[in-house]
Amino acid sequence: MEAEGGLGTPRDPYAPYASPVGGEQMDLDDPWAAHDHTHGHSASTAQLVPPPTTNTASPFIRADQYDRDEDESEFDARSRFTSTRGPGDTESQFGGSESYAPSRNMFTGAGAGAGGGGGADKGGLTKEAALAGEIQEGETTEIVKESSARRRWVALCWALTFWLPNPCLTYIGRMKRMDVRQAWREKLALNIMIWFLCACSIFVIAVLGLLICPTQHVYSTTELAGHSVENNPNSVLTSIRGEVFDLNGLTQLHLRTVSVVKSKEVLKYGGKQIDDMFPVQISAVCDGIDGNLSPYIAFNPKNSSDPNSQYHDFRSFTNDSRPDWYFEQMITMRYLFRRGFLGYTPKEIKNMAHNSRSVGVYNGLIYDVTDYINSGPRLQPPDGFNSPNVPSQFMDQKVLDVFRFNSDGGDITKQLDRLDLDPQVLRRQKTCLRNLFTVGKVDNRNSAQCQFATYILLAISIIMIAVIGFKFLASINFSSPRAPEDHDKFVICQVPCYTEGDASLRKTIDSLAQLKYDDKRKLLVIICDGMIVGSGNDRPTPRIVLDILGADPNLDPEPLSFVSLGEGAKQHNMGKIYSGLYECSGHVVPYLVVVKVGKPNERSRPGNRGKRDSQMVLMHFLNKVHFNAPMNPLELEMYHQIKNVIGVNPTFYEYLFTVDADTTVDKFSVNRLISAMIHDKKLLGVCGETELANAKQSIITMMQVYEYFISHHMAKAFESLFGSVTCLPGCFTLYRLRTPDTHKPLLISNQIITDYSENRVDTLHMKNLLHLGEDRYLTTLLLKHFPSHKTQFVRDAHAYTVAPDDWKVLLSQRRRWINSTVHNLGELVFLDQLCGFCCFSMRFVVMIDLVSTLIQPVTVVYIVYLIVNVARGDQSVPVQSLIMLAAIYGLQAFVFILRRKWDMIGWMIFYIIAIPAFSFLLPLYSFWRMDDFSWGATRLVLGESGKKIIVHDEGKFDPRAIPLKTWSDYENELWDKESNHSIGSWVPPTKFKNEGYAESHTASLYGRETVYEPGARDYSPSPSGMYPPPGYQSGRNTPLSHMGMPMAANMSMASFGGPLMPMPTGGSMGMLHQPTPSRPQSNYLDLPFNSRSPNASPPSPGQQPSDAEIERAVREILRHVDLNTATRRELRRKLEEQFGTDLTARRGVINAAIDRCLAEAA
């Protein structure tokens, strides 16, 4: 009878779908046997039935109980922070591992089962046995097609690393495999680029300005006057013949030499030009024209009125003749106390020339020979001696003419060097100019090139301060948190878990169960990534989860096949489904547990495929629910459990709330996140603030508290202004599944599913994207495919996560975070439609984030350099740098001051102390360990004509090995299957004794929940559909399993937190106490049903009774039959006899009428 109804099913050798007849197998040559067939093709060739019990299911076993010879320490399955991987395993990034290790024999015999892929039954090769360039027996090969962009990138990497030949990497670096060597080259090329960018940053900050505008130690006359003892007693300066000296130090030397002169008498000359205080012996500093200069030549055009000048006059004609005293003193002062030169701008020099002064610039020094031209030198012998008959002129006329005819006071370097003079004479003349006529240096500090050097740094500083300022403004919120709103939206709470312990999982699950949100409209979906025993645990993680939820430990549902992420046949995975109700603190919440157990032949980490695969299980399912696409057995069972056991049609769910297994959420968090979604229909993802749950556990956690706070309230709040939060953390994010008005898929769209389920992860870039930063990459994909939508940060929503408390764990975590950030920001930069324009765009902010991430080590070095210079009292520290530092930390301080987070003052101190570790050591370590992956057994070799071939020993995956079927077809078959059961099994639980609940809720029996026509789809929530069907058992925490029938008879939705009250009669069988819906509701019981079966011929219209007539006849028949023995088929036969016509096409109407009558009878 079932075969007539199309219940024949193909045999799946790795999932318990044995044919009821036992002799039928799938025709692997039929293209429609198991592939998607959504365009009218019959699904009869890939029929599914609820799986019977088999003995191939993977039981709960500890990791150390696997039947294998390897050292169990390789696969000790410790926590995701401390687990040590074997050479064939890939490091977990979230509790899970994208395992590429070779599996055991996929097939029990050569060519056994679909997807055998010829030779896939042979044992896997170890990493040591598989040579890099050889294809071993039993391995599968796949030709790789590289894009042009990939080829250009590879060429660039080779251009940067050509100086390291492959033999060096192979024999010295011990990189035997081609793909590992290529990844190392890409890592090195990226590091070279990062180092080059850091060098460019240093160049721009510290070198560019010096090249464009070299540092000048000059003081204008105004600046010199400001360094008087009255204005600046700690830095008193004075000038002698254009040179500026430190008078404070000079005073100390003077006191040691001439103690009778008080220091204040010396310091009073501060800020002044005291050339006349030091008369010069001309013959000691100038050789004249011919090298013979009389010692009696004097050049002193100005008579000093200062009486102290006589104490410095030791010329030849004085009583105390010391011809070399001035020269010796100037050498000492230049070496010990010179601070620079007097500076004159080109404009000031030109003004001097226009005022009839004979000035000129030679090699940057300014010379003034006006007094020499106007008055000239003279002969002055000592008293009592006659004046010698020698010339008094010591400057050549040609030299003087150069100054005389330099009307604008410009540069005379070339003119002076080209004079028609003997080189020796010219050299003597230059010496005379330097020692006697120097008045200062050209001050170029305000020149165009110096202004450019100054303003380019100022512009960079302004941009950075502006970004910090905007981040500060974005973080300001003077309003109090808004009161949480009540919503009636259906939301799935997803918790992927791997090796977490009982305490962590219980806190997470309890926090979700205790959310102040309607229990009937939230669903806990916990996905266990493999049968792994975590470090410190005594049971596998799935067993811990089920024990927390109170599931019956004796239940062991059949494992069902589904498609996973992995190489070759690793894509074929199997999982078990559990469902029920979890009671916690007065909340009763439905749950669905998906346990990935792997194929029976998996021994190393069975079922484990990583966090991304866990996410894809639910995303694939919701995508197929939305498009009514063919589903694999696991997805069909998920649909059945949610719709018929839990009692909510999967199409009702509008939001996906993702939480990590070590995260607890605030009780109003979901309300606040959904409120943001409802108020802005363009939002496709929102996240809240994640705080540390173990802030005071160790010094390592203390250093992270302030960083978490600022990263949310400044970084994410700032990005939220643009509607483009670049990282929605998987530990605390709410996604919109589809648009509320047009029902356009968002998170579950085909583009997101295709890109996020990328299975070929064999390059350095893709590994960093999908193995280290899958949450950030998912956000990148959302921004890429939906540029008109937004992502946002909601500061009122809070969650609490456990941060690493050990340095090694922190090192591993930050390596993943930093590298995934670099690669994801690199992807975002090239997105076409990021909002904004030029410097006011999200692309510009992303570029700033990317550059700032890459140059963190240089930034730390520069900050240390500034601090050291300030501590040393260096006056050359750039003011804008100090302003920027003050702005960064000053505005950050204002953030927590305005929010009254006074404890953040202490956390900020810890953070500042940790800056060298967080911003210097960790980035450098992360950049160099960018290729730190376990590459598994998949490797790259070169084939014929240089073709690149992927080689692995996982076997070839044949999608036909996993049968597919649409839910509507599967549901129709379930209706037919139920025709062979008595109608009494459909009577609500109140008609039976308590032992009626002993039936396993995991069996795929279509329970009574909602009369649903598969062809009619709507996204509005139904008021029916939360009453547990017969045979439902949720485990120890199911309230109905602990009470007698008299109490259960008066119970409606008490199991879901509803009031205990008598169940009303009528067509509705579900939720009695509901919040006011935010949009129109639709009752599937009131939908017009398609009264024609697709396989039946329509009868004559005149012979068909109406729906109302059929329902009246059903009511009449049910009054006179034994419900414990009657079947639906008998009921249809009686109706056909009564109406005298074939009612096969009206089967759906008849079944709906039966359900309504039975519900009323309850």
From TrEMBL:
Transmembrane keyword on record: yes
Membrane-spanning ranges: 153-172, 192-212, 452-474, 844-867, 879-898, 905-928
Region (Disordered): 1-102, 1069-1108
EC category name: transferase
Reactions that this protein is recorded to catalyse: [(1->4)-N-acetyl-beta-D-glucosaminyl](n) + UDP-N-acetyl-alpha-D-glucosamine = [(1->4)-N-acetyl-beta-D-glucosaminyl](n+1) + UDP + H(+)
Gene Ontology MF terms: chitin synthase activity
GO cellular component: cell periphery; cell septum; membrane
Record's compositionally biased regions (Polar residues): 80-102, 1075-1084
Record GO biological process: chitin biosynthetic process; fungal-type cell wall organization
UniProt keyword annotations, A-Z: Glycosyltransferase, Membrane, Transferase, Transmembrane, Transmembrane helix
Subcellular location: Membrane
Family annotation (PROSITE patterns): DEK_C (PS51998)
Protein's UniProt name: chitin synthase
